[in-house]
Every structure is written in structure tokens, then in C-alpha cells.
Fold these 3 entries.
Entry 1:
Amino acid sequence: MNNDTCVIIPCYNNAKTVGDVVKSVLEYTENVIVVFDGCTDGSQKCVSNVHIIDYQPNKGKGKALETAFSYAIEHGFNYAITMDADGQHYADDLPKFFEAIENQKGAMIMGCRQMKQDNKPTANTFANKFSNFWFAIQTGRKISDTQTGFRAYPLYRMGRMRLFSSRYEGELEFIIRIAWKNIRFYSIPIDVYYPPANERVTHFRKGIDFTRISILNAIMCFVSIFYGYPSRFFHYVFDKKEK
């Protein structure tokens, strides 16, 4: 892998899993950044030998990623692969991302989950279809899995992005803004682990967070008309001239 690629793991109270996740990633790269987003369960004690960002109080996943991206850029990384701290993603899939980064220069790499899988919450399938639909409206692009957290961001093409949203919906806003920059998307298949319902830990608040996602979609639809689509056209013309 290139030394200009890092792996970012945002963590909020994942003491039971984050240590094993980090150890598995360290088998593939030493460029690991863990963001302790207001953790109160001692998650920090489970991790060592990595870059650490630690702050209080909890600010949400979108803010954690925004903070980590700025840190990664400052430390000379051009690409950032993101993974969840709950053990959902397998480090064994990292070589697929490293290969895609090499072969798909400058693309936004999206891990694509199998939608039919053991223990997969039914709400996840609906949320993904809902998100895919609005993403297509806002960007004119179609991708099969907009909700995946296992991704590789081309930091050097994105620049520093300041989001409207700070929590779960921030991941969606990132890829909308990336699409507006006319950055190409490329999907690769990934495996995902869903624990049984009685073992599952989630910080997603169905009512509040789904409302926040709906509000973000409304905002981004409006912005896409006056900024998003014109911006994508501008980048298309500019990129074509550069070639």
C-alpha cells in the first residue's frame, strides 16, 4: 500500500470491540487514526500504537470524520479509508481498497455490502434505498450503497469540507459534496458482520436521526439546484480542459 493512505476509525463508546478492530487493521498498515468522539466507557485504554484524536463531549460521526480528515491532510495523507469501530467491517477487505486506490486514481471508493445477510436489520435495507434515491436526485449519480461506512476518500481532491451536519447524516453529506466536485465513484464488494439482535450495540436514534437525515435531504435538494449541479458542470468542463 502507499504511505500516503491512512485508515480512520471513529469511535464512540466501543470499548468491547475497538481494540480488536485496531489490531486487525495494524496487520495491514501502521497509518491508523482513531477518533475518540466523546467516549465515556474507557475505549481509549483499548488502543495503542496509532494516531489518536480524543475530545469531549461527543460531537457526532460527521464531526469526527471532518476532524480526522483535517488531521490526515495536515500529516500528508492523500487518501483516507474509514472503518467502523464496532467490528462490523473486516480488515481483510483492506487490500481491495489499496488496490482500488492504485488502479482507480482519484476516485471515491465505496464498499458495497450484500443487502441479504444474516442478522441484517430490516430497517437498514429501507434506509439504504431511501438514501440511494435522494442521492441520485441531488447529484445525478447512482450508486448501490450510499450508507456504507467502509470507504476510501480522495482527500487531495476533496479539500477541506465543512459540513451542515455533524452526526450520522454527515457521511451522506460528504459523498453528495464529493459528487458535486465531479469526482468519480467506484464500488467494491465487502463483507459485513451483523451480530444477533441481543448483542447489537447501536447509537443510531431512529426518530431523531431519521428526522435529521430527512432535513439534510431537503436542504441538499435545494442547494443542488443553485450550487450542486452548476458546480458539477464547472468541474466537468475544468477537468476536461486539464486533460
Entry 2:
Amino acid sequence: MERKDFTIESQFDGLEIKVVMMVPDTPIRGVVQFVHGMAEHKERYFDFMKYLAAAGFVTVIHDHRGHGESLRSQEDLGFFYDAEGIAVVEDVHQIVLAVQEQFPQKPYILFGHSMGSLIARCYAKKYDNHLDKLILCGSPSKNSLVPIALWLTRQIEKKKGDRYRSKLLQKLALGPFERVGERGFPNSWLCCNQEVVEEYNQNPLCGFNFTVNGYQNLFNLLKETYSSKGWSCEKPDLPIYFVAGAADPVIRSPKAWQKAQSFMRKLGYTRVEGKLFDGLRHEILNELDRSPIFSDLLKWMMS
């Protein structure tokens, strides 16, 4: 396997986006591009990327704007340089086009986790004809409070500016998740693997509070994901796979998670399926026994 690190200059605003690609030594089956979640970074997906590369898949991931190494300064963690949730989607498309040019005619799979699943669906909304499969992991369900949250971010922005870090917005967005997991162990809702959670809590590139601008992006992505307007649905037979831990608070409930799948079917997608993993939380790729998860996802990718 060969690892390639490179930078793309975003066509949206010139921001340097850091990308990592892993290319197998064996014949290439296809390409899997990862779209990571909120307040984390690309390196957290390397284990699964290596696993897929060993099975013949080129794997690609980038740090979202305002995350990891895709920053103009360290003070910009959680700042997207755009308020509408558009740039973060267009960055994904720019990478898709670049990778598809390098590996033409290979099946292309987009894998979005958590906030990344919102970005991935907003991507499919415009560009589903560029994809062969779509995996949505730990996907946030529809939330009726999004319009209120957007109104609140605008009020806070007027008073404090778009770079302000609001504890109120953080509590609104993430507070309910802390009901899951071990008491006194911050972010244990992420997974049952305490070692992973401890590493997350100690890493300055993880778990940081978004700026007001970052929450504007998050809430706009939620709004756009669950709006029935604007879907091209050029590829109604696109296989879509929802996966999540049954104890994941981000999906809100199995019923809400099922509704997200039903929504995609109502839009016209005919090959939507899902699987819940009993006892697991939000980051199923980081749970104590990941091997069944890895195996299940690989099997679906190869089907």
C-alpha cells in the first residue's frame, strides 16, 4: 500500500485542503472517499482505510475546512470560512473529480459519518450521478428545532460575531448526547471503547467547540439534508446504506433513523437499506470489537 499526502486549493475560496490517499498494491476494486464528522480529523479513519486498501480499494479522506490541517490558523478550528454549508460540500466534489480523473471507470463510494453524513447527502442532492454507492454512518435524524437554532445563531452572531464560541449553542447541539455513556466521563456517548474516548478528549483537534459560524454550517446542513426541495435524483437506483449503533444518541431513536431512510425513498431512491448494531454507540468504526463492522461494510461495498 502506498500513502499519498497532498493539498488541494479549494475552488470556493482558495483555502488549502489537506488530503490523504491510500492506494493498494493489488488490483483496484474501487474508490472509497470518507467524509468525517464534526470536531475531529482525517487520521481517525486510517485504520479502516488501511483495512479497505488491503481489500483492493483506494481510500481517500480530507480534513474539512475548519478541521485538522485545513485551517488558515489554529484559532480557526470550527470556523468554515462560509456560513451556508455550501463550501464544505463543494470541497468534497472537487476531491471526487480529482480522484475520479486519476482512477476513471472505477466504482466510487462515498462514506459520510455523523456531520459528514449530512455533507454526503447534500453532496448526493446535487451530484449523485458521480457516485456508485453511498454509506451514511451515525447519521443525525431530522430535528424540528433546526429553524430555531438557526435563528439563535443569527442573534448571537449579531451580538458576538461569527467567530464567537457559544456554550449555549454547544449545549443545544451536543448536550443531549451526554445522557448516553458513563457518568463523569465526557464524550463517552461516542463509543464504548474508553481508550478511544480518552484519546479524543486529550486531542486538541477533537471535541472543540464550534464557532457561531461552524454551528451555522451544521444547522444549515441539517436543514438542507431534510428539505425535499432541490434534489436532482438523477440516479434513483443509487445503493444507499444507513448504518449506526443502536445506542447512538445522534440518530435520536431507531424510529427517527428509519424515517431518514423513508425520506430518501420518498425522494425517489429505490435501493435504500439500513442496519443497526446492537449495543454500539456513535462511532461504530472505533468500538471495542470493530471486526464485524469492518467486515459488514466491506461485504456491502463489494456486493
Entry 3:
Amino acid sequence: MSDTKKLVEIEHLQQYFPAGGRGKNKRFVQAVDDVSFFINKGETLGLVGESGCGKTTVGRTLLRLYEPTDGKIIYDGETIFDKKAKIAVNMLPYRKKMQMVFQDPYASLDPRMTIGDIVGEPIDIHKLASSKADRRERIISLLDKVGLNSEHANRYPHEFSGGQRQRVGIARALAVNPEFIVCDEPVSALDVSIQAQVVNMFEDLQRDLGLTYLFIAHDLSVVKHISNRIGVMYLGKLVEIADSWELISNSAHPYTKSLISAIPEADPKTARATHRIPLEGDVPSPLNPPSGCRFRTRCPYATEKCAESCPSLKEVSPGHWAACHLL
């Protein structure tokens, strides 16, 4: 990448959801706690971790679909949210620049709207079409970009397969010519054969339109294929972030090592040689996370220090950061 300008930055992002109780007894689900990273223009940052670790919440909070509890969000040099400075700009102009492809293609499309109207809705909201004919032309061109044709525009979502619906969701995200797209597990609800097609389409669109992605998934093999850099989350915390190849080959955090050891290996010889690192126990509740390092209850190397203080991200090698006391 010749242009390494930061497009998106988040600093100490926090998202707590109220979970009952009053006064001193008020409880919160600590979905995202003190997460900081940046995404350069034109790159893909993959975000991985098991279900419930806060990946989707990071994506939605970053787009301010959820108002952050604390932290700072910077887009293209402009601060769009800063809790301490009491900055919270109107997001409507930024909705044209930042879009999202949702995880479930069945739930994210309105069953009462035709495909043409679903894709045309962002064009109407932002008044991007000069006439009805121009609107129609834009919709057909968007459907064409994602591998659907003009006669699909008059059909309804229930007439499509999961993979086709996800393509409609992608066309809708592209309707406003965004620069940045949060892809929230866009292939997890699809068949394996369709997953590869959709991932390749994301790569083609990025190359043709110069897009920047935050690609959220729990399947490391998909993420390593599409991402320039990968961040690993565990129970609301970012535990490691590095270049894609560096993270897969030289992971530093015990949790990342366990995730990587779980990637299925096609070659039987290699599979027999690789050592699987199983994790003990279950993920603790984000309502009541463990003290100190959140991973310590399942970590085979945990010491007393891990219970006392939470490790901060340290640079292990250039561009490779990990949060572990034992590094």
C-alpha cells in the first residue's frame, strides 16, 4: 500500500449495556471494554474471536448504530464521537461514507419491499438520483456489480437463496458509494461453496472501488484469506493485533495460538503433525468478567499476576501487538 493514511481510528472504545438493577446494584454487560485500533485507507482489518466476544458490537458502535459508552471515534481525520470532549456529530453525512453488511441476510432485508426498492432506499434518502430513470439505472448497475440481473429488481427477498440475499445486502451498502464498509460475519450464514464466491466478490469490489473494510468473522481461515491485518478479541478486549501472515505464523497470545490450532488442515500429514491446543472451561459472563486478564480462567499459563492486573497491549515486534503478562 503506497497510501497508508488512517481512515478509521477508535481509541479506548467502550460499550456497556444496562442489565437491570438500580443505584449501586446496577449491572452492565461489558460487551466492549477499552478497545483501540486503526484501519488504513484501502486495507482490510479482520476481527476474530468466539461468539459473544464483542466483535459485532465493535462494528455497530464504530458506525454509531449504538451510541458508545465511552471512547473516541475518528473518521478520516475528523472526530465524530468523543465522550470526554462531549463531541457527537450528526451521522447523516457520514452514513454515505460508512456502511454495513449485516450478518443475517434473512433478517436484514424487509420482506415487504422489492429488491429494487431495498437497493433504491439509500439512493432516495441521500437524494442521489436526478430522475426516476436515473434511479432505475443506478439500481440495475448495482445489482449487476454483485452478480444479479435486472429482472431480479421486481422480486421479493423470499424468492432468493441466502447467498443471493447477501448480494442484495452488499448492493444496498454500495448504493451510496461508501469508502468504508463494516462486514459483520457476511458469510457465516451461507453454504461453504457460496462463501468463497462472496469473499472473492468483496475482494473484487475493494480493488475496483478502493473500499476499506472491517471484516468481522469467527472463522480464521476466511479472515486470513481476505485481511491485511487481523485483530483478535476475547470477552470484550482486544488481545492481539498484527499483519495477517505474522499473526498466523508467529502468534504471541495463548488464546490466538489456540484459535489458530483449531483451523482445519486439508493435508492429512500436516494435520497429524500439528498440535491442537484445546481450551478448558467456558467463556465467563460479560456481566461479571474475571479480575485482571479476562483470559486467565482458561489460560494454561496463568499466574497470580494475571489475576491482579489487566495486561495492556505491548509491541512484540514491529506492528505486532499483544496483551499478555508472560510475553
